[in-house]
Amino acid sequence: MTDVRRAGERYRGGDPGAGIDTRHAFSFGPHYDPDNLRFGALIACNEERLAPGAGFDEHPHSHTEIVTWVVEGELTHRDSAGHETRVGPGDVQHLSAAAGVRHVERNDGPAPLTFLQMWLTPREPGGTPSYTLVPAAEGPVRYAVPAAGAVLHVRRPGAGERTAVPDAPWVYVHVVRGTVRLAGAELGPGDAARITGAEGLQALATAPAELLLWEMTP
User: Which of 70, 97, 115, 217 has the lowest CB atom count within 10 Å?
Assistant: First the structure.
């Protein structure tokens, strides 16, 4: 089964006056929707747009696997475990909050910043926080988050090219750029598909595209 969610259907949030524009794919904060709490292990897929100088002051997380993908600009990350990094397009940032961690996220650069932040629920709570930054690489990306039973795939098919959707109990597909045809639907930037029981599916790029695919198992 494929459930298509359009970019325009996301919940609007953030603080526009402070240069923060957030668009939530799942129930979040004051936008409570009991029918949209999670899909597989995924509980948040937030599109964040930060103006130069804007950001999120230090705040806590726990029992969450947080994966960040920068679309454009550069994200400054600092956390209570002593990590301070700058994350650019194509990098995969993974903060395992475990029993508890605090962090800061800011746009310290001169240009607007757009990034996706995805939260997954771990199979077991607790543990020691950890941080991983995988530098940008050419070609497809495969990044596993074993604690959540999930794998992130990044695909960049050219126009007319097909890319296979992983066979899995749950697959979440987010279109970052371009357009693709998937399960009879045309998807553009910001659109997503939640696929249950994926088997033998392919996405056809109708324009050069960048896709994030979460492959998730129980």
Answer: 217
